[in-house]
Automatic annotation (TrEMBL):
Keywords assigned by UniProt, alphabetized: Hydrolase
InterPro entries assigned: Cytosol_ACT, HOTDOG_ACOT, HotDog_dom_sf, Thioestr_dom
Domain of life, per lineage: Bacteria
GO biological process: acyl-CoA metabolic process
Organism: Filimonas lacunae
A Gene Ontology cellular-component term: cytosol
Family to which this protein belongs: Belongs to the acyl coenzyme A hydrolase family.
Name of the protein: Uncharacterized domain 1-containing protein
């Protein structure tokens, strides 16, 4: 059990008040600011688990479900969902609380893959994950499943680039909103 750490050991909560300088022309908080907060939170969570410096390797699609507004408190809840050899998948849920209306809304959720690095800036092994409830088992399983799907799609991309002929591409895109005007 020495080399396994429970999810609770690295669970991280970071909160920040949204001030006017974070807003865009529409008065809402910049998506980029929220992404930056998510990256910082993922870093803290991953480093707590790894006990080593970590880098962000990839970020799963981030859908913005609702905007955060100036004056709201944005709170990010992060926990380790999965670990490989040197990689750590951190799940992050972002909530925004409006003190005036007392409404708390879910603004986004995403998954960051972080990789632990040694002193020579090479990936280094991380402790395993001790799963202590059914939700943690489900999240671990889902992350593993997504990792396999990503591998499948990456192979498909390679196949498309190397195998799909121009004629086949034309056939597939012919009813899409594009106009093909080849110069030669
Ligand atoms: C991420 C990085 C360390 C991977 O290095 P690498 O030489 O490809 O290392 P490996 O192939 O041995 O992969 C190491 C681990 O990272 C994972 N990994 C690498 N690229 C990944 C990606 N794009 N998405 C998810 N996981 C990835 C591998 O699956 C492997 O996981 P495992 O050890 O749990 O099996 C390297 O690409 C890098 O340093 N990228 C730049 C990171 C950065 O600058 N981030 C922004 C600022 S922090």
């Amino acid at each position: 059990m020495d080399n396994f750490k429970p999810v609770s050991d690295s669970a991280t909560v970071i909160a920040e008040l949204m001030i006017p300088s974070y807003s865009n022309f529409g008065g809402k908080i910049h998506g980029g600011h929220i992404l930056s907060l998510m990256d910082k939170t993922a870093y803290v969570c991953a480093v707590k688990h790894a006990g080593a410096y970590c880098v962000t390797a990839s970020i799963e699609t981030v859908d913005f479900l609702a905007p955060a507004e100036v004056g709201e408190l944005v709170t990010l809840y992060a926990s380790v969902n999965y670990v490989g050899k040197s990689s750590i998948v951190v799940g992050i849920r972002v909530m925004a609380e409006n003190f005036k209306t007392q409404v708390v809304k879910h603004t986004n959720t995403s998954y960051f893959t972080m990789v632990a690095m040694d002193e020579d800036h090479k990936p280094t092994p991380v402790p395993g994950l001790l799963l202590t409830n059914h939700n943690e088992v489900r999240r671990f399983y889902e992350a593993l499943h997504k990792k396999e799907l990503k591998k499948y799609y990456r192979n498909e991309e390679v196949r498309i680039k190397s195998e799909v002929e121009q004629k086949e591409m034309m056939e597939v895109i012919k009813n899409e909103r594009c106009l093909v005007q080849l110069a030669e």
